[in-house]
Amino acid sequence: MIGERIQQARKASGLSLRALAEKVGVSAMAISKYENNQSTPSSGVMLALAKALQVRTEYFFRQIEVELREVEYRKHSKLPKKVLTQIEGDVLEQVERYLVLEDILPVSPVRRFVLPEGLPDKINDFDEIEHIANVVREEWKLGQNPILDLTGTLEERGIKVFQTHALHDGKFDGLACRVNGAPIIVVGADWPGDRQRFTMAHELGHLILEGRLDEAMKEQEEKLAHRFAGAFLAPAAEVYNELGRRRSWFEPRELCVLKKAYGLSMGGWLHRAKDLSIMGDSVYIEMVKMFRRYGWHKQEPCDEYPREEPQVFTQLVFHALAEELISESKAAELMGKSLVEFRVLRKVDHASAATH
Question: Is 45 part of a structural domain of the chain?
Answer without folding.
Answer: yes
